[in-house]
Amino acid sequence: RYRTYLVRTAVQIKNKISGLLMEVGADYNKKKLHTKKYFFEMLENIEDVPPSVIDMLKLSRSNLEIFNGIQKKLVLVLKNNQLIRDRVKRLQTIEGIGEITALTWVLEIGEPERFSSIAKAVSYCGLCAAQKQSAGKEFRGPISKKRNKHIQTVLIEAAKLAPHWNPQLAEVHNKELTKGNRNRATLAVARKLVAYMLSVEKNKKDFHHIESDQSA
Q1: Average pLDDT over every residue of 65-83
Q2: Is 189 left (phi over 0), alpha (psi -120 to 50) or beta?
Q3: DSSP H or E stretch at residue 167
Q4: Calpha distance 190→196 (Å, rounded)
Q5: Torsions phi, psi of 142, nearest 5?
Q6: Is the pTM for the entire model greater than 0.90?
Q7: Which of 4, 18, 26, 179 has a Cα-to-Cα distance from 172 of 20 to 30 A?
Q8: What is the DSSP code string of 15-69?
Q9: CA 112 to CA 123: how far, in whole Å?
Q10: Are the C-beta atoms of residues 61 and 21 closer than 8 Å to each other?
Q11: How many angstroms separate the CA atoms of 1 and 107, rounded?
């Protein structure tokens, strides 16, 4: 959660740098702006910009490097922790699960055994609609607010990219997409990710080994 704060702050600093340059009408390459080499080369060649703005840009860049450095160090310390390292490594055998998603899962889920079913894990992650009853009938409403919003955010972001790397998840996404709702397709992929990760955690095996066992 602290990393999320660091990343959010770093994005705000990047926006501030871009905003300052736009205010003074400076030309810059949006894609390269936040790379160190390009940034300082740009400052050397920039024209008609007040010295005070140059100083603010340099200060903002310095702060950006500090926040990025802390964020990278935090991730390194976490993934090298003996209690976390093996779990993260196994989770990353699932195509579409990256280091940050795996770390967030381990830290927010804790012991996977506390979830007796995939449905309960999905509910905890805030990936299912709240069920309501009326006149003896059940129906689903909006996504339940009773959830862990931190892991929910990470899983939804991961679900947007995972289909590009995982054929099985791409199939899940495309199936839901035919119904005409992109958000629903993303949620379906996120729920499938939860199922995969919970299986890996409980079996304490790499994902491809689990698939092989099931095939056998």
Answers
A1: 81
A2: alpha
A3: helix 167-177
A4: 10
A5: -65, 170
A6: no
A7: 4
A8: HHHHHHHHHTT----TTTTTSHHHHHHHHHH--S--HHHHHHHHHHHHHHHHHHH
A9: 14
A10: no
A11: 9
